[in-house]
Amino acid sequence: MSEPDAPPAPPSGPIATLARALAFAGGIALLVGACITTTSVLLRWTTSQPIRGDFEMVPIATGIGVFGFLAYGTLMRANILVDTFTTWLPKRVNDVIDGFWTLVWAAITLWLAERMIIGSLDTLSSGTRTIGLLALPYWWAIGIGALCFAATGIAALWWVPRHLRGQG
């Protein structure tokens, strides 16, 4: 009895390096958000004075954190696969279906990246800030999200030809 073919290793070039860097930065952002939340709750509990603007900083850190993992998850194929209706199909047909949906994912993420770039530039030019105590500018956070979506689209495009060649 032979073992099924292992999926090919993800790339080791600039795509993988960028995806790993974004995931690492995303993890740091989530840790920062968790530390701000924990410290603010403890301060609120002990001194009745939370960290000023914590409710502005935590959502930005969390959003950056989540976006940071998208490219790495796509590159490592660590997404949820629902194959309930296709398990009976031949592997080649499943590979083509996976290639098609990976291409759709790439198109959507690249389109979102383009839209977020425009949104980031618009937010920068209008001077839009958070509503709250700190009034933080957040054009840069939208720009980081755009970078993460672009990297995710590129990672997905890396997989499309492999799926279509039956190497996915």
TrEMBL record:
The chain crosses the membrane at residues 21-45, 57-75, 96-118, 138-160. The keyword Cell inner membrane applies. InterPro entries: DctQ (IPR055348). The keyword Kinase does not apply. Keywords: Cell inner membrane, Cell membrane, Membrane, Transmembrane, Transmembrane helix, Transport. One of its GO terms (cellular component) is plasma membrane. It is found in: Cell inner membrane; Cell membrane. Residues 34-156 form the Tripartite ATP-independent periplasmic transporters DctQ component domain. It is a multi-pass membrane protein. GO terms for molecular function: transmembrane transporter activity. Signal peptide: none annotated. Part of the tripartite ATP-independent periplasmic (TRAP) transport system. Belongs to the TRAP transporter small permease family. This is TRAP transporter small permease protein. It comes from Falsiroseomonas stagni DSM 19981.
